[in-house]
Design brief:
Length: 260
């Protein structure tokens, strides 16, 4: 059995870590460098940095932040936000990222997924899917189709693209991993969307990182039992309620293999 990964997420804006609810009402949560060093010391397996202002404001990712974090970090680092071309991806990799995450750009021009995978290797090509329940979604669906749609531009734009179909397509294009975030659950502390996780797990074989809604360690346990290969969280770590070590202890107590 492969050990699961516990991944703190740093949503960054203007060089600071921020946290909000459904990508809105952002509050300051600290220094990315200080938090990155602390989370590695606590036992984090990887770290994700997402520039939440880069895409909506038409900016590139803050490379200085990536370099500064890399200087204090030895674990794998995934960086997303503002990636529109393979040259953008290359700049992030040169700045210290190990993997690059694309979201809005992949929806607008899917070829960027295969371009990144071909140029840097499939393991570098992470596609983030921000999934929201459709406003006219049916109450039930045998396979999850018709319930969830892809949203982009930090949740500001509903695309109408079915999440299940999109998940299948991006893996065919070369995505090596999916960062699956429930827009509806983000920052709400109501737990991961398990229906969403199960539906995507049923159609892809690449690793899935569950994101959006964790309030305590048992929420992470539930996500892993629903089919996630890794769990990403922010609020429970930023607010000092639990350390990564605390979470791993609970996972292990529930029969989930973790790296120690």
């Amino acid at each position: 059995m492969i050990a699961t990964r516990v991944i703190p997420c740093l949503d960054c804006r203007d060089g600071r870590v921020v946290k909000g609810v459904k990508f809105q009402n952002l509050r300051d949560a600290g220094s990315p460098v200080e938090l990155a060093a602390a989370y590695e010391a606590q036992g984090a397996d990887e770290l994700v940095i997402l520039d939440v202002s880069a895409t909506p404001e038409g900016k590139g990712h803050a490379l200085d932040t990536v370099r500064a974090v890399r200087n204090v970090l030895s674990i794998p680092l995934t960086v997303g936000g503002g990636v529109r071309t393979t040259d953008d991806a290359s700049a992030l990799l040169l700045a210290g990222a190990d993997k690059v995450s694309v979201n809005t750009a992949a929806v607008k021009e899917p070829k960027i997924i295969s371009d990144i995978a071909d140029r840097f290797g499939r393991q570098c090509a992470i596609v983030a899917i921000d999934a929201a329940r459709k406003l006219d979604a049916p109450s039930q669906s045998a396979d999850g189709r018709g319930i969830f749609e892809v949203v982009i531009q930090s949740g500001k734009v509903r695309t109408g693209i079915d999440v299940i179909d999109w998940a299948k397509r991006i893996t065919e294009l070369g995505a090596g991993e999916i960062l699956l975030t429930s827009f509806d659950r983000d920052g709400t502390r109501s737990g991961y969307d398990l229906e969403l996780l199960r539906a995507v797990r049923a159609v892809v074989t690449v690793p899935i990182i569950a994101s959006g809604g964790a309030a305590h360690a048992m929420h992470l346990v539930e996500a892993l039992q629903a089919g996630a290969d890794a769990v990403l969280a922010a609020s429970i770590f930023h607010d000092g309620e639990k350390t990564v070590g605390d979470v791993k202890k609970t996972l292990a107590e529930n029969g989930i293999r973790v790296r120690t």
